[in-house]
Amino acid sequence: xxxxxxxxxxxxxxxxxxxxxxxxxLFDTVRSIINKVxxxxxxxxxxxxxxFDKVTLSxxxxxxxxxxxxxxxxxxxLKAAISLAKQNIETFHSSQRFVGKKVETMNGVTCWQKSVxxxxxxxxxxxxxxxxxxxxxxxxxxxxxAGCKEIVLCTPPDKNGDxxxxxxxxxxxxxxxxxxxxxxVQAIAAMAYGTESVPKVYKIFGPGNQYVxxxxxxxxxxxxxxxxxxxxxxxxxxxxASANPVFVAADLLxxxxxxxxxxxxxxxxxxKLQTEVMAEVERQLAELPRREIAAKxxxxxxxxxxxxxxEALELTNAYAPEHLIIETENYMEVxxxxxxxxxxxxxxxxxxxxxxxxxxxxxxxxxxxxxxxxSGVSLDSFIxxxxxxxxxxxxxxxxxxxxxxxxxxxxxxxHKNAVTVRLKSLA
Length: 427
Description:
By secondary structure, the chain is an alpha/beta fold. It is built from 17 helices and 14 strands. The strands form three sheets. The protein has a six-stranded parallel sheet, sandwiched between helices. Strands 6-5-4-7-8 form a five-stranded parallel sheet, with helices on both faces. Strand 2 and strand 3 (109-117) form a beta hairpin. Helix 2 (27-40) crosses helix 9 and helix 16 runs antiparallel to helix 17. The protein is globular. Catalyzes the sequential NAD-dependent oxidations of L-histidinol to L-histidinaldehyde and then to L-histidine.
């Protein structure tokens, strides 16, 4: 990790750069895969599974028998942990239900909103170096609460053509409708356009590598909605002299092990803590099974010393981290001043991994500085709000002249006339 002391503001932009990959450079390759799936359906997806996932499949759909077998392969301890996490995610996201109120903006003019679940959603769950069954819960549970009628899940199989049993167990528990063995660009294309097996969906959710990210960007241009722009995962720890260096190092490494392009940053007001965390990261890294991945990620990571908490907060809000852990003496006061972050973890006993798994908040969050403009996945991500209005005679009389005046000045005479004919009918 890079040790940086008292950087000037002129250095901040360079200092806060992410190791984000340029997905635009992949667009030509990705577009050709999308187009082949679009025209050839299942046949193309099966061919790409053979090429990219090195597996020959006879069908894409996961059978009920495979789900039953998977359940028997998941330990009771893991089932209990997944069930506890599901319950907390359900509790937190259920509290986000929208209740529309009828509002009378003027006498005789009533407006309101109704919340409606997106009918068909697609969830992408990466395979890769770790089976992200936790992401199944983070996406499928709120989709079910929102009332989405069809929840489609795609995830890459292993070389034997199997899906990790914990992914299948979590999907069944959370209420996924259909599960398919498909990864990468071909899975995104299948959900975006539909194939003989995979239904077309209206919105696609879920993380993935740079090819998946590029595919989501391309299909979202005109054909399907996506959850948010995504990039490599990241964490920032904001800490003062009261922080425990063992905890801070563990938090930084928990993010570093995600992938070689992940980023972990410490911003601290304590030079002593900066030095101690550096040593502790090295000690804990040596004990990690995924130390090669974490070590590569740490090359993108930094330990930054600043003069005071005001500067620490200004730097934090400029960075807009996906995950922000605040380990300071007065962490609640500090948290009040955070304006750009995906998800915030407060105090020394609140690790980022709690949000990743079981506290109840969602771990699908904006990365690469998008927390300045985007929220993480929530119940709102799976719903649409439809507006309604009803105008009674006294209402059209009250607002009609204003509508006529505005329409006339915009030279939209048909708009004006739609009101005029009604006012004349009431005269």
